[in-house]
Task: structure prediction
Amino acid sequence: MPLYIRSFFALALVALLASCGGIQLDRLANEPEGSEKFTLPVEAPRRPHPAVDGVKRYIAAMQAGDAEKAWAQLSSDTRKAMQQKAAPLGLRGMDLLRLGKMPVGETMASAVPMDFLALFAVRGVKTLRVLAPPDRTPPEQPVELTGKDGTRVVTLRFEGYAWRLHQPDLAMPELRP
Result:
């Protein structure tokens, strides 16, 4: 077959494919004409804010007793604070999560039992609500958690392509009823 006939068929195929256009979406109400068309059906499930996923991953890891996964959900500053608490005892910060104890003195004999789920989240989470973020660098996102013992706001920091719990003071939270 001559080259000009093959070229003609190739151009015709390209024109045909270009005219198909694919799926057409309607404009949203009050959407400017210059913007791309984008519509989601009303019944489509809304994906939660990724910070909510970070809290859920931490809670799931603590409930499963997986200290390594829970450790990965803490911000670098929070992990550093836990490392500093554990270092005088010859332990790693993750060991504190695994043991469920927080050192008070110079030995593990003086360590007190610590509920690390309650330290960084709440027990029996019923609702998670994303609050307005502060304008900070690195980005932080407050999330209000309501559980069986009350409500508190936790802060998540965006690090390493994920939202991680950020509480470097390691202070037990005060719950609101």
Remarks:
- The CA atoms of residues 69 and 167 lie 17 Å apart.
- Residues 3-20 form the longest helix (18 residues).
